[in-house]
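re: that complex we talked abt at group meeting.

here r the seqs, copy pasted straight from the sheet so there may be weird spacing, ignore it
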Amino acid sequence: MVKIYRVLVTQSLAETMTYRVTTILTALFGVLFYAIELITGGVYFSFTPTIYGWNFLDYLNLITTANLISYAYQFLFVAAHEDLADQILSGNLDYSLLRPVNSYWFHACYRVDFPSLVTLILTGIIEGVILARLHPTPLNLLFYLIAVIVGVAFVFALNQIMVTLAFWVDGLTALNGIPEDLMTASARPAKIYPRMIQQLFLWVIPSLAITNVPAQFGHNHPTWLLLWTTLVTGLLLILSYIEWQRGLLKYVSAN
Amino acid sequence: MKYWVTCQNALLTTLAYRGNLLLHLLTTTINVLVTIFMWLAVYNFSGRSDIAGIQPQQMVLYLIVVNILALIFSADPIFKFSGLVRSGNLSIVLMRPINYFVQSFWDYLGRAIPYLIIYGLATGIISPVFHRGPLYGLSSLLLMAVTYGMFFLMITAISLCSFWLVQVWPLRPVLSALFLLLGGQAFPLQVLPATFSWLIYNPFSLAGNQLTLLLLGKLSLGQIATTGGWAMLWTIVALVLIKLTWQRGIRSYEGVGS
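got the structure back, here u go
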């Protein structure tokens, strides 16, 4: 499997080098939207030093962590997910189903998006600087990294579930944008939302927990919510795998 | 009449994919709610009841309206025109007994009708625009019409770069970002320091920020005149750009697709 993944990554790199301008533009847009978030955050905190106990640096830590999760997902999986719905609808899964590989992971890891690696590295450097100023303990730093990995897995599972719906639903392209919008909405301190919304997105679909938990570890406020997000992410991954298996039974190999 | 059919078709296209339309509105609602809750927290913790002359309830209304305007002022004509140039289908359009730009305008209008109705209802029901005398009401309507035309022409002028660019998709995130920041979608431009006050006269701000403030009744008659003047100026700039680039673009267009 590692050998196959290496080949797929090499192919992705070759494609990236072919479309160099696209690569540069994609990286630039990632930086542009991050800069807009920074400016908007600066505007919020120009009127008040703290919001629900979060100062500007804590807020920066939160949005940078949310972007880190988002760019890591984009680097590892977004290109494959963008391709997958078309593959299902056009009946092109036959070629991978015939191969002696796990089709779920083969399609999930089919391509990596190298342009996102530039923004991922940049965001990682900025987050490193922020964490250096927040001084998390080594243990909290370890849990921060675990929470980020869980976050990437959570975003992957949500997107995988949405994309796989193409086995049953055709043409509802806006569905694929929901996880991204959900994660953008979650890149804010949980406490700004009314209690009911907080409970829903901390416990039922824990997208708020996914962004807020690592940020809390970053500024030395450990939370047990990490266990819950890990559990829910695991369940979502299992659900997406079952959905894939059911979807394959529905697949009729024709466009 | 032939253009009215274009408008109807564009509206039907928008309504044909109702699931996508509803999900689009849902995701827009989520984004608006995020910004609203964030600003309410800012009001709460700053202890201020007024930021740049905008009270909390007005800020909520501002954010809702400016996001509806972001849906009205789309950049779709750029990508439609690019498709025509790249496929070579522009030749077919040019042979038809129609003016492409007029048809494109009615198409633009048709696609935005659901959102225009929402904006119109908000103006008629919530806004004080029509309670300030006929002159104010008429000036407001004129400003809305001029700004709508100006933005369409600006987008059309930008779309003509398709004659020389193979891919125009990078313009979509750039224009979204410009509307977010310069159009006042992320925050009202009035909250910025006074040194940035000139920003309110950029085309994105006229379409987003200024039309929202108009609906909130925050523009005086003098300000409406100034904003209208700037909208006219940008309209002239767009028309000149279209005139210059169309002739050159048509000469470089090969009509065989790429």
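couple things i noticed - DSSP finds ten helices and no strands in chain B. Residues 11-252 of chain B form one domain.
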